[in-house]
Amino acid sequence: MGPEKSDSKYQWPETQRFTTLPLAAEGVPILAAAAFITLVLALLELTIPALIGLAAAVFLGFFFRDPDRVVPRDEKVVVSPADGRVLAAEIIEDGGGFYEGKCLKISIFMSIFNVHINRIPASATVRRIEYHPGRFFSANLDKASAENERNAVFMETEDGQRFTTVQIAGLVARRIICRILPGDSVSRGRRFGLICFGSRLDVYLPPEVESAVRKGQKVQAGTSIIGYFP
Question: Is 199 a catalytic residue?
């Protein structure tokens, strides 16, 4: 576990939007369609279908919520790329193509009730992005890292620390969204994508990084510290 840093300062990684209902842009057309269908059903006085449509619209609004977040200023910290529960935080001998050699792997599972916006773990430059088609096992299973559909973002910090963040589709997820491109300079806590419905993110870090989380711990994207660079 990393040391407690009670004097940490926080900052906004992006411009605040000051909106009452913060939604991911990708969710707006889906929510609008659900609301329109619900309205039509209501006008046709189809009460039960209209109520089902209303419930679906409310759930979609909840799922695609995208709140602003503050992030720690400390340049040595690594923040969580996702909201959810830590499945593992351990040193592994082989990064399986996502990191060369021994590394610290931290896996975070997102249920359908978590915010699904993904954020950058540490300020860096995007070196490359690799998309891998695959299967759709439940994202909380170990084999999901190697066999599910996934999108790997390889990054390097200003002082040469390399790490990889992997977006992994889950059992019902069918769409991985990544908004950044190779060559982009990205800052800690910045939004970079999302995965629709239950899924996970794996982060592969240098073995010297000190883990600040444990299995079963709940984390919040951008705000929760998951590790410390040496």
Answer: yes
